[in-house]
Amino acid sequence: MPHRPTLTTSAGAPVSDNQNSLSAGPRGPLLMQDYQLLEKLAHQNRERIPERVVHAKGWGAHGSLTVTQDISRYSRAGLFAKVGQKTDLMLRFSTVAGELGAADAERDVRGFAVKFYTDEGNWDLVGNNTPVFFVRDPLKFPDFIHTQKRHPRTNLRSPTAMWDFWSLSPESLHQVTILMSDRGLPVAPMFMNGYGSHTYSMINAKNERFWVKFHFKTQQGHKFHTNAEGGQVIARSRESYQEELFGAIERGQSPRWTMAIQIMPEADAEKTAYNPFDLTKVWPHADYPLIEVGVLELNRNPDNYFAEVEQVAFSPSNVVPGIGFSPDKMLQARIFSYADAHRYRLGTHYEALPVNAPRCPVHHYHKDGAMRFFRNDTGNPDAYYEPNSVNGPAEAPEYREPPLAISGDADRYDHRAGNDDYSQPGNLFRLMTPAERNRLMDNIAEAMQGVPVEIVKRQVGHFYRCDPDYGIGVASRMGLGVTDLPRSLAAE
Ligand code: HEM
C-alpha cells in the first residue's frame, strides 16, 4: 500500500473517522462537539463567491510572451527591452453575457484578458476578440449590459431590449456587425484573435509618447461555427471551450498568437478624420500598419480552476512604466471599475492572491483589512507612513510620464453629434465575401425574431446607411421592403 497522508482538520489536527458522524447511540441524534462535521458543512456554505457581473464564464491558462522584434524605440517597458525576452503571463478568455454556467458555444463577444507578470509590476491588457466596442461613453455601459442580461420580470434574455438599445445607439453598429458575423461564434479560444481594443500610450526612454493599439493574431487560424452548428455543439456539451483549450494544452499543443502593435505619433491624434480615442473605431491599417512584437503562447493548465481562473483579477488600471493610458473615455472609466469590482468580488487583498501577486518586490503603505495575511516588507517596522526618516520606500521620479496637453471646457459633449457611425461598419460589410454577408444577415434576422417591427425598421435604417445592400438584405429577410425603411432613406 502506498503511504497516504493523514487527513487533518483545517487547523492541522489528525482526523480519526471521516465516514461516520459522532452520535449518541447508533441512530443519533448528533453531538454538537462533532466539530469536524460542523466545519465541513460551514465550509460548504462558503464555497461560492459572487460571479463576475459580466464575463462570468471563462477559460484560462498560463503561458509566456517572447519578444521577436525590437520595439524599444516606442516603449521603455522592461518586457520589450530585448529580442528573446520572455515574460510569464496568465490569460483568461470569456463570454460576456452568460452566467457562470452558460454554454460555451453561444454567439457573443469573447474576452481576451492577459496578465503579464513583468519585473516592473503586473501589466493587465483586458481586451476582447473584437477591436471595437458597442458604446463609446461609459455612462451607457451599465444600460448596455442590462440589455444583454435577463429581463427583470421574465428572467429571460430579451432580443427586444437588445435591438431597442442598439437601434437607438448607432455607435454600436460596428460591433454588432462583428458580433453577428463569423467572428461572433469561434469554435474555441485558440481560433480567434485578441485585441487591446482601446488606444493606449507607449513612452520610450527619451520620454516621447506614442499612441498604440494592441493585436494578437491567432496562429491556429480562424475557425467559426454557424448558429446551427453551435446549437449541435451545445446539445452535446456546454463546456466545448474548456474541453478544447484544456485538452490541447494537456496534449502539449500550445496555442500561439502573434502579438503586434499599431503606432500613431502623438501629434497625429489632432489630424485624423476620426477620433483615435473612440472605441467604436479602428485605425486603418493602411495608415498605421501592424508592427510585430512577439509570440504569445499558452502552455500550462491551471492546477486549480477556482484559485487561478475564477480568482484571477484583471484591471486596465494595471500598467507598467513605458505603457500608459489615453483620453479614451471608456478606458478612463474602466481604470476605476475593475479594481472596485475585485474588492467586492474577492476582497480587499485580492492582489495578494498567488495568481494576482506581482512577481517583483511590492512595497506599499496600505494597512490592515480583512484577511491581511501577507508580508509587505517596507524594510523597517517603523516605516508604516510616508514621508518618513527611517528609509522607507519612496517615490521614484524617473518614472514620471511626459505631460499630456489637454484643452476644452468641462461639459457633457454629445458624442453622437457629427460622428460617422456608418463608414467603418459599411467598409467591413463590403470586405466580406457574398457567403459571409449572407451568414451575417441570416444571423441578424434570426436574432431579431419577435422584435417589434418599429425597432426592426429603425435598425434596418442603420444597416442601410452602412451599405444599401446590408439594409435591403436584412429588411427582406425580415419580410420588409425598401418602402418600410425610414422615409428619408427610401428616397435616397
Ligand atoms: C470584465 C466593467 C468595457 C473586457 C468586467 C468586469 C467589470 C467590467 C465590472 C468584471 C470584473 C470582475 O469581476 O473580475 C466594464 C466597464 C466597461 C467595460 C465599466 C466600460 C466602461 C469593456 C471593454 C472590454 C472589456 C471595452 C474589452 C475591450 C472585459 C473582459 C472582462 C471584463 C475581458 C473579463 C476579465 C476576466 O477574464 O476576468 N468588465 N467593462 N470590458 N471586461 Fe469589462
UniProtKB/TrEMBL annotation:
UniProt keyword list: Heme, Hydrogen peroxide, Iron, Metal-binding, Oxidoreductase, Periplasm, Peroxidase
Subcellular location: Periplasm
Protein name listed in UniProt: catalase
Gene Ontology CC: cytoplasm; periplasmic space
Protein function: Decomposes hydrogen peroxide into water and oxygen; serves to protect cells from the toxic effects of hydrogen peroxide.
The family this protein is said to belong to: Belongs to the catalase family.
Stretches with biased composition (Basic and acidic residues): 409-419
Pfam families, sorted: Catalase, Catalase-rel
PANTHER family listed in its UniProt record: CATALASE (PTHR11465:SF61)
Enzyme class label: oxidoreductase
Principal place of residence: periplasm
Cofactors: heme
Biological process per Gene Ontology, one example term: hydrogen peroxide catabolic process
Any one Gene Ontology molecular-function term assigned to this protein's record: heme binding
Gene3D superfamilies named among the record's database cross-references: Catalase core domain
Record EC number: 1.11.1.6
Catalase core domain boundaries: 8-394
InterPro entries: Catalase (IPR018028), Catalase_3 (IPR040333), Catalase_clade1/3 (IPR024711), Catalase_core (IPR011614), Catalase_haem_BS (IPR002226), Catalase_immune_responsive (IPR010582), Catalase_sf (IPR020835)
Active site: 55, 128
Region: Disordered, residue numbers: 1-26, 390-428
Binding, heme: 338
Source organism, top-level taxon: Bacteria
